[in-house]
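Exercise 3.2. Students should predict the tertiary structure of the chain below and write it as structure tokens, then compare their answer with the key that follows.

Predict this chain's 3D structure.
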Amino acid sequence: MAEPPSVEEVRVGIQRAAEAFQGLSYKGGYPYLLSGDLKTRYNAGHGTLKPFPDETYLTMEPPGTPWVGRAYLRSFRATGDERYLAMAKEVGDALAMVQLACGGWRMRQP
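Answer key:
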């Protein structure tokens, strides 16, 4: 059985994943699904996957924006690294930016 990764290997893995995810962000929001080449973003609506017309669409449903924000918060708790808390705050700002007064969500930033 293989040895578990060291604490430093885990920290490096978290950092690499966070940096990769940030490259996929639009104003703190994340797509529901990406194509293998990371060029096409998809929205799950009414049981089907539909390509986004551009990168300005933010997905407010898991596993998009909310789950990425949660991963950043968990990374902050695990490491104490303030960068992950800042990333989580950016996600929170994206969620607030597209929330409607009625409590629902827009799928696109204004």
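Discussion points: The chain has a mean pLDDT of 84. The beta strands are 33-34, 41-45, 48-51.
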